[in-house]
Amino acid sequence: MKAIIGVDPGLSGALAAITAEGLQLTAMPVFKAGKRCYIDESNVVSWLVEHALRDARVFIESVHAMPGQGVTSMFTFGTGWGQLRGICAGLGIPYELVRPQEWQREMLAGQPEDAEYLVASRLWPHADWRATPRATKPHSGMVDAALIAEYGRRRSAGKDAS
Q1: 43 strand-pairing partners
Q2: Cα separation of 95 and 117, whole Å?
Q3: Rounded to whole angstroms, how far apart are CA atoms 9 and 33?
Q4: CATH assignment at residue 142
Protein backbone atom coordinates (compact mmCIF):
# COMPACT_ATOMS: atom_id res chain seq x y z
CA MET A 1 0.00 0.00 0.00
CA LYS A 2 1.21 3.45 -0.88
CA ALA A 3 1.60 5.71 2.17
CA ILE A 4 -0.70 8.71 2.08
CA ILE A 5 0.34 11.68 4.20
CA GLY A 6 -1.92 14.51 5.28
CA VAL A 7 -0.40 17.76 6.52
CA ASP A 8 -2.16 20.48 8.46
CA PRO A 9 0.55 23.15 8.24
CA GLY A 10 1.27 25.67 10.92
CA LEU A 11 2.64 25.60 14.42
CA SER A 12 -0.53 24.00 15.78
CA GLY A 13 -0.86 21.65 12.83
CA ALA A 14 0.09 18.01 12.48
CA LEU A 15 1.25 15.18 10.23
CA ALA A 16 -0.81 12.05 9.59
CA ALA A 17 0.13 8.93 7.61
CA ILE A 18 -2.21 6.25 6.40
CA THR A 19 -0.11 3.14 5.77
CA ALA A 20 -0.59 -0.61 5.71
CA GLU A 21 0.07 -0.48 9.47
CA GLY A 22 -2.82 1.96 10.00
CA LEU A 23 -2.97 5.62 10.99
CA GLN A 24 0.17 7.28 12.37
CA LEU A 25 -0.18 10.75 13.92
CA THR A 26 2.09 13.42 15.32
CA ALA A 27 1.54 17.03 16.28
CA MET A 28 3.68 19.41 14.25
CA PRO A 29 7.19 19.30 15.72
CA VAL A 30 8.11 22.78 16.95
CA PHE A 31 10.85 24.39 18.99
CA LYS A 32 10.99 27.64 20.87
CA ALA A 33 13.66 30.27 20.29
CA GLY A 34 13.29 33.24 22.56
CA LYS A 35 9.62 34.14 22.67
CA ARG A 36 8.74 32.59 19.30
CA CYS A 37 8.08 29.06 18.09
CA TYR A 38 9.21 27.57 14.79
CA ILE A 39 8.63 24.34 12.91
CA ASP A 40 11.39 21.86 13.71
CA GLU A 41 12.46 20.91 10.20
CA SER A 42 14.80 18.10 11.26
CA ASN A 43 12.00 16.31 13.14
CA VAL A 44 9.61 16.80 10.19
CA VAL A 45 12.25 15.29 7.88
CA SER A 46 12.78 12.35 10.26
CA TRP A 47 9.04 11.68 10.47
CA LEU A 48 8.60 11.87 6.70
CA VAL A 49 11.61 9.62 6.09
CA GLU A 50 10.10 7.07 8.47
CA HIS A 51 6.59 7.21 6.99
CA ALA A 52 6.78 8.58 3.49
CA LEU A 53 9.87 7.55 1.58
CA ARG A 54 8.42 4.19 0.58
CA ASP A 55 6.22 5.19 -2.33
CA ALA A 56 4.25 7.96 -0.64
CA ARG A 57 2.06 10.83 -1.67
CA VAL A 58 1.64 13.94 0.48
CA PHE A 59 -1.40 16.21 0.64
CA ILE A 60 -0.70 19.60 2.20
CA GLU A 61 -3.55 21.90 3.15
CA SER A 62 -3.28 25.00 0.99
CA VAL A 63 -4.27 27.80 3.29
CA HIS A 64 -3.99 31.54 3.03
CA ALA A 65 -4.01 34.55 5.32
CA MET A 66 -7.24 35.17 7.18
CA PRO A 67 -8.76 38.61 7.75
CA GLY A 68 -7.71 40.00 11.10
CA GLN A 69 -4.61 37.80 11.31
CA GLY A 70 -1.55 39.77 12.39
CA VAL A 71 1.38 40.38 10.05
CA THR A 72 3.82 38.43 12.22
CA SER A 73 1.56 35.39 12.51
CA MET A 74 0.87 35.46 8.74
CA PHE A 75 4.59 35.57 8.02
CA THR A 76 5.32 32.73 10.47
CA PHE A 77 2.50 30.64 9.04
CA GLY A 78 3.60 31.25 5.44
CA THR A 79 7.19 30.40 6.31
CA GLY A 80 6.13 27.07 7.85
CA TRP A 81 3.91 26.25 4.88
CA GLY A 82 6.83 26.90 2.53
CA GLN A 83 9.19 24.84 4.69
CA LEU A 84 6.88 21.82 4.47
CA ARG A 85 6.65 22.11 0.68
CA GLY A 86 10.42 22.52 0.45
CA ILE A 87 11.07 19.49 2.66
CA CYS A 88 8.85 17.33 0.45
CA ALA A 89 10.51 18.64 -2.70
CA GLY A 90 13.97 18.12 -1.24
CA LEU A 91 13.15 14.53 -0.26
CA GLY A 92 11.63 13.86 -3.69
CA ILE A 93 8.19 13.11 -2.22
CA PRO A 94 5.38 14.18 -4.56
CA TYR A 95 2.87 16.47 -2.92
CA GLU A 96 -0.41 18.07 -3.79
CA LEU A 97 -1.93 21.22 -2.33
CA VAL A 98 -5.53 20.81 -1.19
CA ARG A 99 -7.82 23.71 -0.35
CA PRO A 100 -9.67 23.34 2.98
CA GLN A 101 -13.00 23.66 1.18
CA GLU A 102 -12.15 20.64 -1.03
CA TRP A 103 -11.31 18.14 1.69
CA GLN A 104 -14.00 19.43 4.06
CA ARG A 105 -16.71 19.20 1.38
CA GLU A 106 -15.96 15.52 0.86
CA MET A 107 -15.01 14.42 4.35
CA LEU A 108 -17.69 16.36 6.25
CA ALA A 109 -20.61 16.01 3.81
CA GLY A 110 -23.91 15.75 5.66
CA GLN A 111 -22.30 16.37 9.05
CA PRO A 112 -23.07 19.22 11.46
CA GLU A 113 -20.67 22.14 11.71
CA ASP A 114 -17.43 21.41 13.60
CA ALA A 115 -17.83 17.65 13.14
CA GLU A 116 -14.19 16.99 12.25
CA TYR A 117 -13.41 15.05 15.43
CA LEU A 118 -16.65 13.08 15.19
CA VAL A 119 -15.89 11.99 11.61
CA ALA A 120 -12.23 11.19 12.35
CA SER A 121 -13.06 9.19 15.48
CA ARG A 122 -15.57 7.13 13.48
CA LEU A 123 -12.96 6.39 10.81
CA TRP A 124 -10.25 5.55 13.38
CA PRO A 125 -12.00 4.68 16.66
CA HIS A 126 -8.80 3.52 18.37
CA ALA A 127 -6.61 6.52 17.44
CA ASP A 128 -5.20 8.68 20.20
CA TRP A 129 -6.01 12.23 19.12
CA ARG A 130 -4.14 13.90 21.98
CA ALA A 131 -0.92 15.78 21.28
CA THR A 132 0.59 14.59 24.57
CA PRO A 133 -0.38 11.95 27.15
CA ARG A 134 -1.35 14.73 29.56
CA ALA A 135 -3.72 16.42 27.09
CA THR A 136 -7.42 16.10 27.83
CA LYS A 137 -8.81 17.25 24.47
CA PRO A 138 -8.25 16.03 20.92
CA HIS A 139 -5.62 17.96 18.95
CA SER A 140 -7.49 19.68 16.11
CA GLY A 141 -4.38 19.68 13.90
CA MET A 142 -4.06 15.90 14.21
CA VAL A 143 -7.76 15.46 13.42
CA ASP A 144 -7.52 17.70 10.35
CA ALA A 145 -4.28 16.08 9.13
CA ALA A 146 -5.90 12.63 9.36
CA LEU A 147 -8.95 13.81 7.41
CA ILE A 148 -6.70 15.42 4.79
CA ALA A 149 -4.82 12.12 4.47
CA GLU A 150 -8.08 10.19 4.08
CA TYR A 151 -9.24 12.69 1.46
CA GLY A 152 -5.93 12.12 -0.34
CA ARG A 153 -6.29 8.34 -0.05
CA ARG A 154 -9.74 8.49 -1.64
CA ARG A 155 -8.51 10.75 -4.45
CA SER A 156 -5.53 8.51 -5.09
CA ALA A 157 -7.74 5.40 -5.17
CA GLY A 158 -9.97 7.09 -7.75
CA LYS A 159 -7.00 8.06 -9.91
CA ASP A 160 -5.48 4.58 -9.68
CA ALA A 161 -8.79 3.03 -10.79
CA SER A 162 -9.02 5.16 -13.93
Answers
A1: none
A2: 25
A3: 19
A4: 3.30.420.10
